[in-house]
Amino acid sequence: xxxxxxxxxxxxxxxxxxxxxxxIVMTCYYTGSAVVWSNMTTRKLPIYCVKTxxxxxxxxxxxxxxxxxxxKILDILSEYDIKANFFAVGFWVEKYGDKxxxxxxxGRMEIGTHSNTHPNMSKLSxxxxxxxxxxxxxxIESVTGxxxxxxxxxxxxxxxxxxTVAEELGLYTIQWDVDSLDWKDxxxxxxxxxxxxxxxxxxxxxxxxxxxHTVEALPLVIEGLKNKGYTFKTIGxxxxxxxxxxxxxxxxxxx
Length: 255
What we know:
There is one protein chain. This protein has helices spanning about 10-30, 70-80, 90-95, 95-105, 125-145, 160-170, 190-195, 215-225, 235-240, and strands at about 50, 55-65, 85-90, 110-115, 150, 170-175, 180, 205-210, 230, 245, 250-255. With about 260 residues, the chain is of the alpha/beta class. It folds into two domains: about 5-45; about 50-255, TIM Barrel. The strands form three sheets. Strands 2, 3, 4, 7, 8 and 9 form a six-stranded parallel β-sheet that branches. Strands 1-11-10 form a three-stranded mixed β-sheet, with no helix packed on it. Strand 5 (about 150), helix 6 and strand 6 (about 170-175) form a beta-alpha-beta unit. The protein is globular.
């Protein structure tokens, strides 16, 4: 009878090799939000940007509190003959419904919901998520006559449940891949430099209607993007409505 003697060093090398293979396999299932332990349990992702050969970009503005500069933003969009997106919180709509109607009627602002009370959506129950979305959608529709089909979560905070409920209500959940940081009171020039240095085909740019220097920065952003050859679309015009997948970094891709 023959015996095979296996050295401990050999066993250790085999174990290390198996561990390395396992790490590589798990890395292949990294979604950008969580490690997926099997291909049956991937985490949902919203749309951060769109993969497209077209040199197009979407500008978007979130509105939760002030409104002093809102119509100034519309004037600038009109001056440059472009469209953008406006995500409004329900209590903002209740307070500034006249301004929202002006935006909607202009045909230059595609209106979406930014929730009803601006909570951390991932901390809410399924029923309260639905209440937040339906209440805000009803308010927007009562003012504009159009029911929104785009949703941006406050603070960019979402979960699988948030995305699932939004989808059940016919909403596409929209994030961004270019953050202007205008809410940090950056100068107009710094805002423009930040945006122009990060934009690519299919980018979604995040700004705010009440940013301290947003109105000053907007012409710089628009002219800079035009000089780079970009055109402007609304998010609704740019995203794919069906037959798409979302990559690990949130890029929406035509299937």
